[in-house]
Amino acid sequence: MPRLRDELESQRGMMPEEVRLAYEAMVGELQRTGFIAQALQIGDRFPDLVLPNAEGDLVSIGGLLQSGPLVVTFFRGEWCPYCSVTLDALAAALPEFQAAGAALVAITPETGGRALLAKQNHQAGFEVLSDVDCGVGLSCGVVFRTPEPYRLLLEKFGTDLAERHGNTAWFLPVPATFVIDRTGVVRWRFVTVDFTERAEPAAILAALHALAASDD
Amino acid sequence: MELHQVRYFVALCRTLNFTRAAAECDVTQPALTRAIQRLEEEVGGPLLFRERNMTQLTPLGRAMVPHLQAMLTAAATARRIADEELGRQQTVLRVGLGPAIAAARVADVVGRLVRFCPELSVRFEEAGAPALVEEMLSDMLDCALLPDGPDLPDRLHRWKLWEEGCVVVLPGGHPLALRGSLTADELAGETLLVGERCGGFALKLTEANPRALTVRRCGGSWVQMQDLVAAGLGLALLPDALGIGAGLVSRPLTQPRLRRSVLLTLVAGRPQGLAVANFVKLCRARAFA
After folding, report:
1. Of A114-123, A171-180, B48-57, B76-85, where does mean pLDDT reach its minimum?
2. For the domain bounded by B163-259, which CATH number is listed?
3. Interchain proximity A113–B285, CB inside 8 Å
4. N or C: which end of chain A has fewer CB within 10 A?
5. Angle at which helices B18-25 and B3-15 pack, to 10 degrees?
């Protein structure tokens, strides 16, 4: 399994200077306010929620859990190069997650058919759900309001969140990945306020193996 | 931000009173105050002016209310549709269809919604935009598909679902049917049917070319207008997204290129039933080709 960390590192190296400054300020502020503490914790129940999937059907977390444990990951959108390499890495790791008995769900605040585009562009054999207005992200405690300097830079580089989300709230999820057991309880999590860091597929797989071992 | 912080803030906006908001949310006042402070810290500024006898929203607070409210609604309506505790379980979805907007465009969305709400019944209503807006405001309709226009009231939330171009609809045996596409000049000497509920393209074209075209006014919907085309009363200009009746053909109008956007609209700030909330989510999530 190739290391996602290396891909992310190479993306970080290409970050324009002005973006890096806004990124450091944003991440620093989220760290200072203790954002991570509010995300779902190990032992919490993952809310049973219904969202539209990439194909335009409503999908429920409860329904997906009936076939086994679930890996749920939040991503900002395909405009984000870190999300993009992560989706590739997850698509590549999917067969191993499936061999461990689990399914994968990626959740994005993007609307307007962008979930389907992401799925197609990354040949993702997993569900990509559209968290319209970030209600599910809020329920999981992973959503924050993008500070203006960073948002203005996104616009400058051609990412219009208002158009992509269908609202002008500027909410985005932090990178967050949860492993949920069949009963809906969070058994492992990776949450960070730094959007250049992501859960390593090998670490997710290890968590799934540990979950399977504890269930035996 | 956390669900409870947003819930407390929205309750506080409603009551503008910490004691009453705390009672409404079933928490102590210090807990509510702490949660609001945390939220303020996160959004980067005070949401409320706290004066001795009065609590008021700051400009930032006012700007955040609709977004936080929408997020809270999205969270509530994402909970399982079958969840009984959500109370009023809406089983009727009432959708307005503006001029020359066919139910066919959203029928697939309704079909997918029905898989989750087997008890759902659907009512479509076709009318002009002002009538549909009025019905939404008086809670007779849940939402409406309307052409984008300057007259939509600010109270409506709106999302662009698709853009559509214009086609000339004519009988299959008409000489112009031999062409792959048509221009306004090529329509000179033809009679154009113009109706209030047919998408507005014909009106735009006749306003731009007042002399070249003969106009026949007709009421009724785009379906009835097609019947008149079939009967030889004239040609129709209709959105390219509509189905064309038997015996008729449609040709794109390439000069001028007329386009319009179709919006999904609903009244801002109104509590949404599960059916309409999930209908809106499904519509917003997908791309309409």
Report:
1. B76-85
2. 3.40.190.10
3. yes
4. C
5. 130
Is B278's CB within 8 Å of A60's CB? no
Q: Where are the domains of chain B?
A: 3-78, 88-162+261-285, 163-259
pTM of the model: 0.92
Nearest to B199 by CA among B154, B174, B169: B169
Check CB contact under 8 Å for A33 and B78: no
**Which residue's structure tokens are 């929620």?**
A49
Of B2, B70, B112, the CB nearest to A133: B70
Class of domain B88-162+261-285: alpha beta
Total beta-carbon pairs less than 8 A apart between chain A and chain B: 120
Would the CATH topology of B3-78 be identical to that of B163-259? Answer: no
Q: Return the residue matching tokens 């662009």.
A: B160
Whether the link from the prior residue into B153 is cis, omega within 30° of 0, is no
Q: Least CB-CB distance to A145: which of B43, B109, B115?
A: B43
The CATH architecture assigned to B3-78 reads Orthogonal Bundle (1.10)
Q: Are A160 and A64 in contact (CB under 8 A)?
A: no
Distance from the A67 Cα atom to the nearest Cα atom in chain B, whole angstroms: 18
Which residues make Cβ contacts (< 8 Å) with residue A155, sequence separation at least 6? none
Residues of B in contact with A29 (CB under 8 A): 44
ipTM: 0.94
Per-residue confidence in pLDDT tens, chain B, 289 aa: 899 999 999 999 999 999 999 999 999 999 999 999 999 998 889 999 988 778 899 999 999 999 999 999 999 888 765 554 443 465 789 999 999 999 999 999 999 998 888 888 999 999 999 999 999 999 999 999 999 988 899 999 999 999 999 999 999 999 999 999 999 999 988 999 998 888 889 888 888 776 778 889 988 889 999 999 999 999 999 999 899 999 999 999 999 999 999 999 999 988 888 889 999 999 999 999 7
Closest Cβ–Cβ partner in A57, A143, A166 for B1: A143
Q: Where are the alpha helices (DSSP H) in chain A?
A: 4-13, 17-32, 61-65, 81-99, 114-121, 135-139, 148-156, 161-165, 201-215
CATH topology of domain A4-215: Glutaredoxin (3.40.30)
Distance CA B168, CA B240 (A): 9
Q: Is A108 on the interface with B (CB under 8 A)?
A: no
Alpha-carbon gap, residue B35 to A190, rounded angstroms:
24
CB B194 within 8 A of CB B202: yes
Whole-angstrom Cα distance, residue A132 to residue B279? 11
Question: Which among B41, B280, B286 has the least Cβ separation from residue A56?
Answer: B286
Show me where the domains of chain A are located: 4-215
Q: What does the alpha-carbon distance between residue A130 and residue A99 come to, in Å, rounded to a whole number?
A: 26
